[in-house]
Design goal:
The complex is a heteropentamer, with 2 copies of chain A (373 residues), 1 copy of chain B (290 residues), 1 copy of chain C (412 residues) and 1 copy of chain D (300 residues).
Chain A (H helix, E strand, L loop, with lengths): L3 E9 L5 E10 L4 E5 L6 H9 L6 E6 L2 E2 L10 E4 L11 H11 L4 H14 L15 H13 L5 E5 L7 H20 L5 E5 L3 H7 L2 E6 L2 E6 L1 H6 L4 H6 L6 E10 L2 E6 L2 E4 L2 H7 L6 E6 L4 E3 L8 E12 L4 E7 L2 E7 L12 E6 L5 E4 L9
Parallel strand pairs in A: 3-8, 3-9, 6-7, 7-8
Antiparallel strand pairs in A: 1-2, 1-4, 4-5, 9-10, 11-12, 11-14, 12-13, 14-20, 15-19, 16-17, 16-19, 17-18
Chain C lengths: L3 H4 L7 E8 L2 H17 L3 E8 L4 H11 L5 E5 L3 H4 L23 H6 L1 E2 L2 E2 L2 E2 L2 E9 H7 L7 H15 L10 H16 L14 H16 L6 H5 L10 H4 L5 E5 L3 H7 L6 E3 L14 E3 L1 E5 L6 H13 L1 H7 L9 H10 L4 H12 L12 H15 L5 H20 L1
Parallel strand pairs in C: 1-2, 1-3
Antiparallel strand pairs in C: 3-11, 4-5, 6-11, 7-8, 7-9, 7-10
Helix pairs in contact in C: 2-14, 8-9, 8-17, 9-18, 13-14, 17-18
Chain D lengths: L2 H51 L4 H6 L11 H8 L6 H32 L5 H13 L6 H10 L7 H4 L8 H12 L4 H8 L4 H12 L1 H17 L2 H6 L8 H5 L11 H22 L15
Helix pairs in contact in D: 1-14, 3-14, 4-8, 4-11, 5-8, 9-10, 11-14
The chains are: A alpha+beta (373), B mainly alpha (290), C alpha+beta (412), D mainly alpha (300).
Bound molecules: adenosine-5'-triphosphate (2 copies) and magnesium ion (2 copies).
Chain lengths: 373, 290, 412, 300, 373
């Protein structure tokens, strides 16, 4: 039993800065919880409070059925990957990884076996005799990761554990962590994992749920798909997704019984379903949001319900896709298109961009809440 | 760091000058004296290795040397351990830690003053405090200062008691151990003791090494303690080598012989220091290797 | 070279003299006052006083002698003469300055002691000797009278034990005093000095053994505390030993010039009195006396005449003598004694002792008798003897062989 | 048992646990303070005793281990300060600072430079030079005294503070050099690299980056040099002959003559006063022993 | 003039490890060069050698028209963002950034202006008075970045400068760096930039050219698009692109004059153009490569020229796209699909996956070279 529960947890740093403003969060036993949020939003602080490294200045943290406010880190049953690695500089990679096991008096042969196995998965077998000084950034990060992986705690805390790895390695490490999670579950000793990342792919693929933090407050806790599709507020909408959702000023207008949204570059008819949700806001200003992939750049397009005309400023080619930055009535939009389907878009020229309005979001300007959910 | 060769030389130039101007002459002069019968008043005559021969044939020389060795072996580890232990405790975030640090440094400020001599008498005289306390436990009074077998301990204790400077150095070193390593150790489940042994200690080995060498050197050259408390007695049982050197140099005016003694001690310390430096790579962890 | 000589070269024809001594408060104050008086009386001569405590002074003077930077006028220990001036050339030969220094005021026997190879290396400042001082209060408490013979001392020991307790002794001897006590015994018995003119030990092994046995007997009979008992208090100067301070040790065999601190150390109002030389061993008299210290003049001084003037002023000018009083012990200069006696300042333990010393100066003392190396040997031998590491015969053997070796080396 | 009861129970348990923990912590820290205080008293006792002894009579000084004097008498301080010399202790204190302050300054500078050279640069024959540096520590300096005296005499430096100060400007205190080297070798080079990229030359790297980080070590150097110089007796004694130039350490022993009566209370009173600067300096200096900060700028 | 030229540069570390095996590279004045490669491939080492922080053990480095082998870092005209930040712990963020300018004796008001401007762009205005200790990981990284940005060197060296930032911030920082690059060019003082990143988006969008490194050797230097579309060898093919190209064992076979490639799960007909290139390899084993987006999961699909049948193991939903992991004849493939276009794919079931063979690559097994270029 290692559910992690935060009850109105607060943190004020000695210099007076209040980093966490009362967080309530329940992480279920064996759940894979991802923390995302802008830099400085208190992800690490929260993780470190769960670990017991940071005194909490308000609220309670429960692990299992114990309030751990007063419990030492070593008695909390946790393993952690530090954002700054915190490797022991005087120990080899091997000893860095073995240290925790040695402390728990694990037999030597088991330590050896686990360390070597982890090293194999982390592709650092050749480096086991090296000290941190003699390793590259990514290699150090993998040792830091290995140090946590070899252990079998109730709760894993990962603070951006893959940030310095190349894409390929990152994928395989990600899979490795997920496998571990599955394996432990299968073995009947599920481990709760809390994982901080800035990588949206990681967040979306790994998390059972994702907690979006902003400035020491929780914005939304939900499954990846819900976060993406049903952001509860403007912040989440803007934060999740890369490139991020187009968010422009708009106004709800009613014309002839039909509800439209007026945005820079055009007045677009809202589908019935959306129209219902915002009818109360007719005449009011709102934020209009649409994901880049829901804009289709094509002269004629049967799927779109409305379009704006914009001039293309930049086309970023990503190999498998293209980002088109265009300007409509002084407002910048970004569209994400398949280069195969949308050909011959040239910089500087004007095109019609069709909007898939069934996917659009509209946010109250004051409460910043999503009106279209 | 990259650097042109002369740049480093530039930095040690002051020292090099000092070496040539201030250190070299006295050094070589004393080496030269060790081969003469120099008695300060008349000019030295070369006598070859006579002084060294005499030395090895002198009973007192061997006795003094033996005592010095045991003194070194007793005090160096004890003082280091004590200094480290106290530094470790005083490194915690305690209230009034400034006060405690000052208190613990106190004995070292007192140095070899009258007060220390008098105090040691009170502590270890037959009617002294230590015996009074021992009496509480039914132990017969011990002649700490009068019994040649014990006197060396009282001297050693004085040295251990003045553990302030290594303590301060340890403190400075402990401050440089990154906090994050302690955090990692806490997460790794290491107890305080384990953290100390496996993390703190290795991190401060450069300074531990330094303190070790320094204590070794200073213990070999210890003069003040026995000089002010026992004067070398009883029965020369605290007649440390430097006292022997001092007596010969400034009381008997046998500067030649005394120089020979000094150079003998020099070689002995050198041997130990060399051994220490040889062992260095096995246990001293440097963040920066060259 | 900024030696003593150069410093003397004052501006405007003014002569600058450096004068160094060691001592305590009383001596500093008195000497400084005397110097001011001298400067008043001798315009044109400036005295630079260089003075300090005893500790380290010898090192300082040694360095200065070696470096040729010694002051123009120095106060030195008597036996230093034989260190710094083995051949008599270490200091200015005062016999060339007799126009300014009146040597007639000194006992010729004393002058002999400062003359090396016919050269007068210094003038004696004072005479001092080992004298018995008794703690009258303690003796009274024990019901003993102040002894004049050893038998009475033995008796006192019994009374001390029975009436006061086992840790009470009628006398205290440290290692050196214990050795001197053995010599005292031998001298009284045989009437000869410890070291003869040829710088050889004057006693046979058997004689020495007897002397040492005498000391051991004193310990056995509880007259003096054993080495180990004394040592238990640490390496403490006799006057700072709690037992002395509290009156548990009834007497000391001490230099008359040092008695002040022994008396001052006594707790409460215990009374110290001067005793007679103890007798009862042989037919001879025994005593140990020596010149305490001398004034010498730097052999390189630029101003020998002025230096001599200063010297003479300090030892014989009536006003100066009065100012200085007994800050350097009872003076050796006859004129000075006269002045002081006239003033009535000569009284008290120091003077009483000194009178006894001058009454009988012993059988002569070798300049090497108090050499540090020899002193160390005496102490070591007595300590080993006292701790039972060696017996009296072995002690005699050791003392003789080593002392003769050292003496030979010293006299070379 | 319903959910609410369960929660309540857990909460109660938790409260109890926390109280117990708090109590144990309390005991723990109580014990820690007790031990610290007890041992601390042992360490402080000499000073306390010294303070008391400065009011005692000679006899009481040598027979009583208690620190309370039978009566308080400040004459020790008053007379002691006046001294038996032409000068008061004020002069001697000023003299001491004339030696100590420049000496500490030049020591820190020369030692830091030399250590920097050794710790961070390639120097031809470095190993050999380093061995010499260490070797200069090993010879008992007793026997060096006379040659040194002769040397300083030939420089015409006697009776001035030069022999006491100038050599320190040339890093002759190998002890400190070695110490700073060891500290430097424990500091990661990353910051210095960043500084060179930022355009620092090597001396700027030293002053702007290394020295701030080495502060505790450098303060220790200054502290030790301060105290040792304050206490140094033989050096000034031998080199300085004019009483007017004496530092406190010599002045303290001015009135001590082995054969004469010594007013111990005065001697001790002055010893107490002489301790004050060292104490104050230590107390102030150690405040700079704040947490190490090196690592917070570096990731990995 | 600050072109950076590496001539057979080698680096062997003191412990004997040879990190760089002779690199030849010309970076043009004002060029934006990106270094990518797996963790430990010597990106940082190379950067540090250019900076002069690492002695080079062979070859020459030229900056401008000067061989800088013996030139001190401070005289090379560079600014650098360190992978490990290397912030001055005793200085505030402000001073950390101002330090370099102070060293070059820039007037105080200009320093202040530049630091504040940079801080604004980096969104760390509020933190200028804080010391590194009091900042979050990402905030520290931004200070490290700021430290380089405030300066105007000839060459910028960035070692994973954005790795710890959230996606949104990362995009704006990226734009900021590009703007700086443009601005300097416009000002007539173009700065050469060398930029190490693991973020493929960054690499693809920022670099004029990209250098792919592997184990201390250069694999390919080319424009982003060329790297993606025309990988010269197996390594580059596998490394560039996320998720990476499907690479499976195959064999070229000829049947009735037509050339096929036989891979696990099917024998596929090669289009004429490709067939020509590999005809010489008929009968030989090769590596077959196809990007995930060139696999279309659909029962019937007109675009495909051949298909394999595979059972779906995992479907990863990314919001705007889906990754489908499927297994064909024991070999794992990954397809990247638009969730709108390909609906109702369920885990565990079998589907036909059509391959767009016009886009396929084939690699010689020995030389690992791309045969189809
Ligand atoms: N000081 C050193 N001593 C020995 N080997 C080292 C040292 N520093 C780095 N290495 C090795 O050199 C290789 C290249 O290291 P480098 O730091 O350049 O890699 P990198 O490409 O920057 O990797 P990353 O993406 O993980 O930061 C690595 O295999 C590393 O282990
Ligand atoms: N020791 C400290 N003292 C004062 N403020 C701090 C301290 N540590 C962090 N902060 C502040 O607290 C806030 C949260 O920091 P935290 O490290 O938790 O952020 P984070 O979400 O992990 O950010 P990042 O993604 O950049 O690592 C930040 O604004 C930071 O500036
Ligand atoms: Mg963080
Ligand atoms: Mg790197």
């Amino acid at each position: 039993m290692a559910e992690v529960v935060l009850k109105s947890v607060e943190k004020q740093y000695p210099n007076g800065f209040k980093a966490v403003h009362g967080i309530d969060l329940e992480i279920k036993d064996g759940e894979f919880m991802v923390f995302v949020g802008p830099s400085g939003c208190a992800k690490s602080t929260t993780l470190r409070m769960v670990a017991g490294l940071e005194d909490i200045t308000g609220g309670e943290i429960w692990i299992g059925d114990k309030c751990v406010n007063e419990v030492q880190p070593k008695d909390r049953g946790i393993a952690m990957v530090f954002q700054n690695y915190a490797l022991y500089p005087h120990m080899t990679a091997y000893n860095n990884m073995a240290f925790g096991l040695q402390m728990s008096k694990t037999p030597k042969n088991i330590i050896d076996q686990r360390v070597r196995e982890a090293a194999k998965h982390l592709e650092i077998e050749d480096l086991l005799d090296r000290k941190p000084k003699e390793m590259s950034g990514g290699q150090r990060q993998r040792v830091a990761l290995g140090r946590a992986l070899v252990r079998k705690p109730d709760v894993f805390l990962f603070d951006e554990p893959l940030s310095n790895l190349d894409a390929k390695l990152r994928v395989s490490m990600r899979v490795r962590i997920q496998e571990l999670h599955e394996m432990l579950k299968a073995e009947g000793v599920p481990a709760t994992m809390i994982y901080v990342t800035h990588d949206q792919v990681e967040a979306m693929t790994m998390g059972d749920r994702i907690t979006v933090l902003n400035a020491g407050r929780i914005m939304q806790v939900d499954t990846p798909m819900n976060l993406y599709r049903k952001p509860e507020n403007l912040f989440v909408a803007g934060f999740i997704g890369a490139p991020s959702m187009n968010l422009v000023d708009g106004e709800i207008v009613e014309m002839g019984g039909k509800v439209f949204v007026s945005i820079p570059g055009g007045v677009l008819p809202l589908p019935e379903e959306k129209a219902e949700k915002v009818r109360s806001h007719v005449g009011k200003k709102i934020k209009f949001g649409l994901r880049p992939e829901d804009i289709i750049a094509n002269e004629v397009h049967e799927g779109g319900e409305g379009f704006v005309t914009g001039s293309v400023r930049v086309v970023e080619q990503m190999g498998n896709e293209e980002f088109i930055y265009f300007n409509a009535a002084g407002t910048q939009f970004i569209a994400r298109v398949n280069p195969e389907q949308v050909k011959n878009i040239r910089k500087g020229e004007d095109y019609r961009f069709w909007f898939n309005l069934a996917k659009c979001h509209m946010f109250d300007l004051e409460t910043e809440e999503n009106l279209t959910l | 760091m990259k650097g042109k060769k002369y740049e480093g030389l530039l930095y040690i130039t002051p020292w090099l000058i000092g070496l040539v101007v201030f250190t070299a002459f006295p050094f070589f002069a004393s080496l030269f004296f060790s081969f003469t019968d120099y008695n300060l008043m008349s000019s030295p005559n070369f006598v070859g290795i006579d002084n060294y021969k005499t030395m090895f044939q002198t009973e007192l020389f061997w006795k003094s040397f033996g005592i010095t060795m045991s003194y070194v072996f007793i005090t160096v580890p004890m003082k280091l351990a004590f200094a480290l232990f106290i530094a470790y405790i005083l490194n915690f975030k305690l209230k009034a830690v400034n006060f405690f640090r000052t208190a613990y440094y106190m004995p070292s400020i007192l140095g070899g003053s009258v007060a220390v001599a008098v105090l040691w008498r009170f502590l270890f005289a037959d009617t002294g405090l230590v015996n009074m306390i021992l009496a509480l436990f039914g132990v017969d009074s011990i002649s700490w200062l009068g019994n040649p077998d014990y006197a060396i301990f009282t001297i050693s204790l004085l040295r251990v008691w003045q553990f302030g400077s290594p303590m301060v150095i340890f403190l400075a070193a402990l401050k440089n151990v990154p906090e994050s390593l302690y955090e990692a150790a806490r997460i790794d489940g290491a107890s305080k003791v384990k953290t100390f042994i496996r993390v703190t200690l290795p991190m401060i080995t450069p300074v531990l090494f330094f303190n070790f060498i320094m204590q070794l050197v200073q213990a070999f050259q210890e003069f003040n303690g026995p000089y002010i408390i026992t004067g070398g007695g009883p029965l020369n049982s605290t007649y440390l080598f430097p006292l022997y050197i001092y007596d010969n140099a400034f009381r008997y005016f046998r500067m030649g012989y005394s120089s020979a003694l000094s150079w003998f001690l020099f070689v002995v310390i050198m041997v130990f220091t060399l051994l220490a430096f040889k062992s260095e790579k096995h246990w001293v962890h440097y963040t920066e290797v060259e | 070279n900024k030696g003593g000589t150069d410093v003397g070269g004052g501006e405007g024809g003014e002569v600058k003299l450096r004068f160094s001594w060691w001592g305590g408060d009383e001596r500093h104050e008195a000497t400084l006052a005397a110097i001011r008086l001298f400067e008043d009386k001798n315009p044109g001569i400036k005295i630079e006083a260089e003075y300090g405590g005893w500790q380290g002074h010898q090192e300082k003077v040694t360095s200065q002698m070696v470096g040729n930077t010694a002051p123009d006028v120095l106060q030195v220990n008597w036996n230093w003469l034989y260190i710094f001036s083995k051949d008599g050339n270490g200091f200015y030969d005062l016999s060339t300055l007799t126009d300014h220094i009146n040597l007639d005021n000194y006992d010729p026997a004393l002058m002999d002691q400062t003359t090396i190879n016919g050269k007068i290396n210094g003038i004696p400042v004072g005479v001092t000797g080992k004298v018995f001082y008794f703690n009258k209060t303690a003796y009274d408490a024990a019901g003993a009278s102040i002894p004049t013979t050893f038998d009475e001392l033995y008796k006192a020991a019994e009374l001390f034990k029975t009436n006061l307790g086992n840790d009470y002794y009628p006398m205290d001897l440290d290692q050196y005093a214990a050795f001197l006590m053995s010599m005292y015994y031998l001298e009284q018995k045989h009437g000869k000095p410890f070291i003869n003119e040829e710088n050889v030990i004057n006693y046979s092994l058997g004689e020495l053994e007897e002397g040492f046995d005498f000391y051991l007997d004193l310990v056995d009979k509880g007259v003096v505390p054993s080495m180990e008992t004394r040592g238990a208090a640490g390496n403490v100067p006799m006057d700072q030993t709690p037992s002395w301070i509290q009156g548990k040790y009834g007497a000391t065999y001490e230099w008359d010039s040092a008695v002040a601190k022994f008396q001052a150390a006594l707790e409460g109002d215990q009374e110290l009195v001067t005793g007679d030389y103890l007798t009862g061993i042989g037919n001879n008299e025994s005593a140990l006396a020596k010149i305490s210290m001398v004034y010498s003049i730097n052999k390189n001084t630029k101003y020998p005449v002025e230096s001599a003037k200063l010297l003479e002023f300090l030892v014989s000018d009536p006003e100066a003598v009065e100012i200085l009083g007994t800050s350097r012990g009872v003076p050796a200069n006859a004129a000075a004694i006269e002045v002081l006696e006239g003033e009535g300042v000569l009284a008290g333990l120091n003077y009483e002792g000194n009178v006894k010393v001058r009454g009988f100066m012993g059988n002569g003392i070798s300049p090497y008798f108090e050499d540090s190396q020899l002193q160390n040997l005496y102490r070591t031998v007595m300590e080993e003897l006292g701790y039972g590491k060696i017996n009296a015969a072995q002690a005699a053997e050791k003392l003789t062989s080593e002392a003769n070796r050292m003496l030979a080396e010293l006299a070379k | 048992m319903n959910e609410q009861d369960r929660k309540k129970l857990i909460a109660e348990n938790d409260l109890r646990l926390r109280k117990r923990l708090a109590r144990r912590n309390g005991i723990n820290s109580g014990l820690r303070y007790f031990v610290l205080t007890f041992v601390g008293l042992l360490m402080l006792y000499p000073l306390i005793w010294l303070l008391g002894a400065s009011f005692k009579s000679n006899a009481e000084i040598f027979t009583s281990i208690g620190f309370l004097p039978s009566s308080f008498d400040f004459s020790g301080y008053v007379n002691g300060w006046k001294t038996s010399t032409e000068y008061t202790f004020t002069t001697y204190f000023i003299n001491t600072f004339k030696i100590v302050i420049p000496k500490v300054i030049v020591t820190v500078i020369s030692v830091t430079l030399t250590a920097y050279g050794f710790a961070r640069f390639k120097i031809p024959g470095k190993k050999f030079l380093f061995s010499i540096l260490i070797a200069t520590l090993l010879l008992p300096n007793l026997v060096l005294r006379i040659p040194q005296y002769i040397m300083f005499n030939s420089f015409n430096w006697l009776d001035s503070y030069k022999p006491l100060i100038v050599p320190s400007a040339f890093a002759v205190d190998a002890f400190f050099v070695f110490m700073v080297i060891q500290f430097m070798r424990g500091i990661p080079k990353d910051l210095e690299e960043a500084a060179t990229i930022d355009g620092c030359n090597s001396i700027q790297v030293l002053t702007k980056i290394l020295m701030p980080i080495l502060k505790p070590a450098l303060i220790s150097v200054a502290l030790f040099q301060f105290m040792w110089t304050m206490n140094d007796f033989l050096g000034p004694l031998i080199y300085i002959s004019s009483v007017r130039k004496y530092p406190v350490s010599i002045a303290l022993k001015m009135s001590m003559d082995a054969s004469a009566l010594v007013h111990w209370n005065q001697v001790i009173a002055l010893s107490v006063i002489a301790l004050v600067p060292s104490l104050v300096v230590f107390f102030l200096a150690q405040r700079h022993f704040v947490d190490g900060i090196t690592s917070s700028g570096i990731k990995g």
